[in-house]
Amino acid sequence: MPEKLTFTLQIFFLGFSVVLVVLFFLYALIELTNRLREGLTAPPPERTPPPSSAEPDRLPPAVAAAITAAVNCYRENASESRGPVRIRIIPPQSGGSSWVAAGRRALLENSTLWERLRRN
Fold it and tell me: pLDDT-based confidence at 37, cuts 50/70/90?
């Protein structure tokens, strides 16, 4: 029995070593080809930073007011409780594939599954 175990372990370590050596050589080959490819391609041109001005760019007051109004309107609408959103499944009107329609239906029907699982 011990002879079989030692023989089995020898074969195991031999096979494992061969696999590791082959993987190391493949990694070295990939690194070599990457370095050769980098040497053949031209370096990217250096980018010059944009000139800095003394005063940072500012939004015009009208644009800032419009953004503020939009955010305020969005926050007011978001604070109202509207309840859950229901998605209706409408079959395609065009002559699409029935497989595509079935896939879309399955996606829509299971769209709330992950949300329910996350909330619980």
Answer: confident
